Amino acid sequence: MANDEMNLNEILKIRREKFEQLKAMGRNPFEILKYDQTHHSKDIKGNFEEMEGKDVSIAGRIMSFRDMGKASFCDIQDRYGRIQAYIKQDELGEEEYKIFKTYDIGDIVGIKGFVFRTKRGEISVHAKQVTLLCKSLQPLPEKWHGLKDTEIRYRQRYVDLIVNEDVRETFYKRTKIIKAIREFLDARDFIEVDTPILATIASGAAARPFITHSNALDIDLYLRIATELYLKRLIVGGFERVYEMGKDFRNEGIDVRHNPEFTMIELYQAYADYNDMMEITENLIAYCAEKVLGTTKINYQGTELDLTPPWNRMTMVEAVKKYSGVDFNEIKSDEEARETAKKLKVLDELKKKLKDCTKGDILNAVFEAYVEEHLIQPTFILDYPVEISPLTKKKNDDPTMTERFEAFIFAREIANAYSELNDPIDQKERFEQQANDKELGDEEAYATDDDFVNSLEIGMPPTGGLGIGVDRIIMFLTDSYSIRDIILFPTMKPIAKD
User: Fold this and answer.
1) 3-state helix, strand, coil in the chain (%, to 5)
2) Closest CA to 170 of 481, 410, 378
3) Range of 122-136, 153-167, 344-358 with top mean pLDDT
């Protein structure tokens, strides 16, 4: 057995022995039901002139000890940070002080005392009473480093939050960002709604779903891949401005930008189009940055990004011409497009997904291969091919293209929006084409939703729709490299048992 394992086993044994001794003394900390916590660390440190000499009751985890014989200092960590506590034998009594000195780093204690400043100038609490509220039976790690520890951090987020202040701050910011998104939309008279997570049809996005089964109904169900089709039904019902922020689920790859379970916000506004959605997108994200960081100019992974509206705008055709040199406006047929795709070396990869690729499919493939990596500053890419936009209105001046945009920051898509298709006849034909694509091998083709088509036959006004990847916005505003760094409990493969 390695030395570190022997040391850990010895530590675990000693901590359990201490716990048994406390129980034998009638001091089982797990029997304590509650504790009257009157103040937090920031209350005391932020208002010392008012708090000095006043009695307080604090609670938190012991993070350090400094033994000075008949007196000790320890740092107590609560939800807002740390504060020093001064524990003196003469104040507690010899027996109580002896018991206190058996406590371990990681134990949770309550301390009643008064606020003072030490000779060295540190704001502290002079303890009159110390109560053990929870015995930590496992030691906290001394430090985290390397890939192995990164995996442990994700698996044991509770420990990560205890020992890494920057991680706690990231998740506080996550909450503030989500709150800011709601504030922005609520101020614009949007209402927040809830739609089903379990659905009989997985549609509204190009993605593979998770499948489950209802025993009561004896049918297969899908975890939603998008909220779009339900939210547009609400526009039909007269809600005019709706949004939903919540979890979507896609049974696809896992990497630094993708987690199978992720947070999205989708919003829909009647009597609006994709231009209105661009205005909302850039101003919403700028609002979040200003609200949480105090600026719209941020640093992400060493790159300065300016989120200040208005953002750059290019059509997909313009962007492809700029970065690949090919003008798709000059390409007149699918066959000519396939020859271009061969020259640009994107055809073979595209054929793995689609057996029969069109000019629109190829334009998108060239965009992904040649353009996306250059979209560092916030940029809207407008007007996508109809083949890859089955829920979007066609452009009146070019029926091969749609009124759709995607927003990119740091070469990553962060938003997708449409002037929503509200023609039920056209929508049914688009679904039929998607069904054909699925038969030809496109596993991510949209599923047909007959009830949604029926709702369009009732009548949906012209509508702008927008979806934003909330996790990706949080990554940028917290300078987080991986999506796992901003999801409290990311999806992980179980550790194999011996």
Assistant:
1) 40, 25, 35
2) 481
3) 122-136
Determine the 3-state secondary structure of 327 from DSSP. coil
Contacts of 98 (CB under 8 A, 6+ apart): none
Taking residues 244-251, what's their average pLDDT?
Answer: 96
Pairwise CA distance, residues 411 & 476, whole Å: 12
* The pLDDT of residue 146 is above 50: no
For residues 142 and 368, give the distance between their C-alpha atoms in angstroms, rounded to a whole number.
44
3-state secondary structure of 214: strand
Average pLDDT over residues 213-231: 96
Show the tokens assigned to 28.
């089982």
Model-wide pTM > 0.90: yes
Instruction: Decide: helix, strand or coil at residue 356.
Output: coil
Give CA 358 to chain center in angstroms.
35
N-to-C CA span, the chain: 16
CA distances from 135 to 94, 247, 252 (A): 21, 36, 42
Residue that is written with structure tokens 């023609």 in the block: 423
The whole-angstrom separation of Cα 384 and Cα 316 is: 6
What three-state secondary structure class fits 342?
helix
pLDDT digit string, tens, across residues 78-95: 999 999 999 999 999 999
What the chain holds in terms of domains, given with CATH numbers, is 3-134 (2.40.50.140), 163-311+377-485 (3.30.930.10)
DSSP string, 387-399: GG-TTBPEETTEE
**What span, in angstroms and rounded, lies between the C-alpha atoms of 189 and 185?**
7
